[in-house]
Specification:
Shape of chain A: globular
Distance between the termini of chain A: 17 Å
Low-confidence stretches of chain B: none
Distance between the termini of chain B: 54 Å
Mean pLDDT of chain A: 96
Number of helices of chain A: 4
Number of strands of chain A: 11
Strand content of chain A: 25-35%
CATH topology of chain B: Glutamine Phosphoribosylpyrophosphate, subunit 1, domain 1
Oligomer: heterodimer
Number of strands of chain B: 10
Number of helices of chain B: 6
Structural class of chain B: alpha+beta
Number of domains of chain B: 1
Number of domains of chain A: 1
CATH class of chain A: Alpha Beta
CATH superfamily of chain B: Aminohydrolase, N-terminal nucleophile (Ntn) domain
Strand order of the largest sheet of chain A: 9-1-2-10-11
Mean pLDDT of chain B: 95
Radius of gyration of chain B: 18 Å
Largest sheet of chain B: 5 strands, antiparallel
Chain lengths: 207, 235
């Protein structure tokens, strides 16, 4: 791990797109270099009925950025008297991150959302200074991001239903974190559909 | 100037009024009439644009201006104050777009513009704006048009139809009789022209009135040729 600030606390998150559904998953480890301190540190936060964000990186910034984004989204909902849309949330987040362009937060983010009326799916990622991505099928962030990305690509099929999507996401995450000492100790998977959101906790290798 | 005037020039009178704002409203009521009507599928803004001289190049300066793709405005009162507010409104709309990547909803922009106008009633060394604005826009989320009036005090009112400027009382009475919720945009344009006609001295032509319409496609000012067609339909 050494001196790399983005792997100081460890952690990983993944999001995948299905047919009118999205899955977003993260591990639960909170560690300080090679010591595991807690196994209940989830990195996924909800900002609207169908909008979720995952933050991976330095734990203090995961907490701060998620809270500061909540501050902005709360005021938005009060002022505009309406709920956030995924692309708007994404833009607000990248704006927040770019404000600190020359003294950045050490978190990489995933933003996912679903339009409950049309079923349109949104999956985006961002680096720690707010570089925007296209609306893609698969995104990963964190210390094991390359491992879970490879597995995610292997398991991904276009237009999966909610159950297939859950399987693909869970397998990619659980097996990927086994190759990374800084991630793991359980996982949480959210499957977001037009009419419901299902949260499942996974028990993987507890090491 | 600002070093000497840290205090507000707008102060309360014993009766609880802010006379500067009252006087600003007088400036508005002495200005040329403007009318706004919200139809079922859009909004129309219209104003008198009389030139003081035959030598004026009337087609160059405009009273009806757009703020962004889906919003426009018109005024009654002092032209230069209006120009400043148009610039501020445009900047506010773009700032919103930069943060949210969405066209600003009319309600949100009006709040921000009205806040600017209110600042000028409570800051040091400034006077209130001598204009009332009629701001129209289309809200894509709610899928409907909006019409708002912004006053020098910073108050804003949502209207179905209204008139501001000279003879606004007669204008509003005329509109109260003519307005209906089922009005379509085409009829609303006719009604707006007729309302302006009530207080118009002389012959109305395509060069001495300005009309803007806002619907789902966005806001645009009518060309003089289009205005001429509408005037011909009224006869």
């Amino acid at each position: 791990m050494g001196d790399d600030i983005l792997s100081y606390n460890g952690g990983v998150a993944l999001a995948m797109k299905g047919k009118e559904c999205i899955a977003i998953a993260c591990d639960k480890r909170y560690g300080v270099q090679n010591r595991t301190i807690a196994t209940n540190f989830t990195k996924i936060f909800q900002y609207s009925d169908h909008c979720f964000v995952a933050f991976c990186g330095l734990a203090t910034d995961v907490q701060t950025v998620s809270e500061r984004l909540k501050f902005r989204t709360n005021l938005y909902e009060l002022r505009e008297q309406r709920k956030l849309k995924p692309n708007v949330l994404y833009n607000m987040l990248t704006n927040l991150l770019y404000e600190r362009r020359f003294g950045p937060y050490f978190v990489f983010a995933l933003v996912v959302g679903l339009d409950p009326k049309t079923g349109e799916t949104f999956v985006y990622d961002s680096d720690n200074i707010g570089a925007i991505s296209d609306n893609v099928n698969l995104v990963t962030v964190g210390t094991a991001s390359e491992y879970i990305f490879g597995l995610g690509e292997l398991f991904f099929k276009p237009n999966m239903n909610a159950d297939e999507l859950f399987e693909a996401t869970s397998q990619a995450l659980l097996n990927g974190v086994d190759r990374d000492s800084a991630s793991g100790w359980g996982a949480v998977v959210y499957v977001i559909e037009k009419d419901k959101i299902t949260v499942r906790e996974l028990k993987g290798r507890q090491d | 100037m600002s070093e000497r005037y840290g205090f507000s020039l707008t102060t309360f009178s014993p009766s609880g009024k802010l006379v500067q704002i009252e006087y600003a409203l007088n400036a508005v009521n002495a200005g040329s009439p403007a009318v706004g009507i919200k139809a079922s599928n859009g909004v129309v803004l219209a104003t008198e644009k009389k030139s003081k001289s035959l030598l004026h190049d009337d087609r160059t300066i405009h009273k009806v201006e757009s703020i962004c793709k889906n919003m426009g405005l018109v005024y009654s009162g002092m032209g230069p104050d209006y120009r400043l507010l148009v610039q501020k409104a445009r900047k506010l709309a773009q700032e919103y777009m930069l943060v949210y990547e969405q066209n600003v909803p009319p309600t949100q922009l009006v709040k921000r513009v009205a806040d600017v106008m209110q600042e000028y009633t409570q800051s040091g060394g400034v006077r209130p704006f001598g204009v009332s604005l009629l701001i129209c826009g289309y809200d894509y989320d709610e899928d409907r048009p909006f019409l708002y009036q912004c006053d020098p005090s910073g108050s804003y009112f949502p209207w179905k139809a209204t008139a501001i400027g000279r003879n606004f009382v007669n204008g509003k009475t005329f509109l109260e009789k003519r307005y209906s919720d089922q009005l379509a945009l085409e009829d609303a344009v006719h009604t707006a022209i007729l309302t302006l006609k009530e207080s118009f001295e002389g012959q109305m032509t395509e060069d001495n009135i300005e009309i803007g319409i806002c619907d789902k496609e966005g806001f645009r000012r009518l060309t003089p040729a289009e205005v001429k067609d509408y005037l011909a339909q009224i006869g």
